[in-house]
Amino acid sequence: MQEIVKFAYENAPYYKRSFDEAGVKPEDIKTLKDIQKFPFINKKTQRDTQGVGSFLGELAAVPEEDVVFISTSSGSTGVPTMSPFTKKDFDEFQDTESRWFWQIGMRPNDRYVHALNFSLYVGGPDVIGAQNLGALCIWGGTLPSERFVLKTYQPTVIWTSPSYAWQLGEKALKSGIDPKKDLNIKKIIVAGELGGSIDATRKAIEDIWGAEVYDFYGLSDIFGACAAMCEAKDGLHIAENHILVETIDIHTGEILEPGQVGELVFTTLRKHARPLIRFRTGDIGRIDNTKCSCGRTHGRIHILGRKDDMFIVSAVNVFPSDIEAVIREQDGITGEYLIRIFERDFTNKYAVEIEKNADNPKSDDEVAAEVTAALKARIGVKPARVVVHPDGGLDTRSEHKSRRVIDERTLDYSI
Length: 415
Known about the structure:
Number of domains: 3
CATH superfamily of the largest domain: ANL, N-terminal domain
CATH class of the largest domain: Alpha Beta
Radius of gyration: 22 Å
Number of strands: 19
Helix content: 25-40%
CATH topology of the largest domain: Rossmann fold
């Protein structure tokens, strides 16, 4: 940490200016806790400094000729931001991916389909980590469901988003293909959405495929997968040789103890193209530093959701992941859902739209009442309404990230 803070201070214009203004120097780092003396950065910092002074911007700590790869964020919370890598950064990125693949049980005799978007997406190159491990790799990209690569090549491992893993399985069943009998998938890696860490969603996908599902967590700001589940499926092991994790109060920035829920803050320890010192991820969760039952000692992060996605109803913090957990546990509905957040009488309300299975004999009103009661029991506040659509009636299915929250509020509810 001392080396990377010093490197950032001496080579990135933003850090030199920011540290000087805060009255701190790299020499102030004596222990890991001393990082708390240094100022935070966030997505706004990245956007404000991108392209300033050079193509790579003021957060970059190396010249452009040292950069061999850039990815960009999706831009879901604003202007897309680029993430540059030196060759050393990129090679260590892939070494970490190889470690995660091995952790979930991938071996050289596996056939692997990398069904992620390759278009500027930081998860695209992760397939190289599988190749370096020795697996036979199929660069699938965003697989159209009608091109059933999984039946033709009979791969044993696939990586995609939770929503698409679910949809691909359901489409297979509807086309007469039983994923459990006609395909050979043994392990499914999911990332890009929270579903893989929601027990009900993970189990639903496992039930369709007859395969083990493992959640990976990544940030375009750092690299493809920074943390991954193991066989215990009790949180995601974080790459602590690359990332120092802090948890802070989302309102005050106060440092929280390990195990307490707050916003996760990452400091990169080895990435040189663009070091991130105390980067506020916007993800809400906790860090568990106890030894995992799998025997690994790297800490585990538990993600609850995005700070941007959390909304408050009747003084209760509600995450879309809480709602998804309920929907995926209900019988007689497809598992697809859409959340609408709106205002009524100057207070937040939410509505949930779902799909009823075609063979469900219950009326729409009965289904809505059951879902309303389940949401009230799980979350503590019931939705203003539950709208029931027929199977396929929601436009939420996607080959990448599904859009499941529509915020119709007009007032500023920034946290």
